[in-house]
Amino acid sequence: MRESGHNLVDGPSFLQALREENKIVLPSVVQVYAPDDEHLIVQFDDGRVVRWNARALRQAGGVFERLRDSKVFREQLTVLNGTVAWSDDFDPTRCIDIDPLVLY
């Protein structure tokens, strides 16, 4: 497992593989949990697991404002639309979600 922030990490990257194969394949999140109030453990459909630093996301305002509440951050965390999301009613049209490429 490797830690990631808001940028793609070093090493053989997903985007590099896309360029080589001339294919667009979006990673899909299959499982997520928050081990603490600053990180997410994210598992993708290709088996990759990342520890994602969510500190900047939780400090952001706007649509992410409610994630400052630790209870919301941990208890409303789920997988919707193939990515990490927060929702109190599991409605994919009203959730807060993150582009899976940001997490990958």
Biggest sheet, spatial arrangement of strands? 1-4-3-2
The low-confidence runs, each spanning 5 or more residues with pLDDT under 50, are: 5-12
User: Which topology of the domain at 27-98 does CATH recognise?
Assistant: NE0471 N-terminal domain-like
- Percent strand equals 25-35%
Total beta-strand segments: 7
Query: On the 0-100 scale, what is the average pLDDT?
Result: 84
Compute the number of helices: 4
Q: Sheet with the most strands?
A: 4 strands, mixed
Order of helices and strands: EHEEEHHEEEH
CATH class of the domain at 27-98: Alpha Beta
Annotation keywords:
alpha+beta, 4 helices, 4-stranded mixed beta sheet, NE0471 N-terminal domain-like
Explain this structure.
- The chain has 104 residues and is of the alpha+beta class.
- The protein has a domain at 27-98: 2-Layer Sandwich (NE0471 N-terminal domain-like).
- It has four helices and seven strands.
- The protein has helices at 14-21, 55-59, 70-75, 100-103, and strands at 2-4, 29-33, 39-44, 49-53, 77-80, 83-86, 96-97.
- The strands form two sheets. The protein has a four-stranded mixed beta sheet. Strands 5-6-7 form a three-stranded antiparallel beta sheet.
- The chain starts with a strand and ends with a helix.
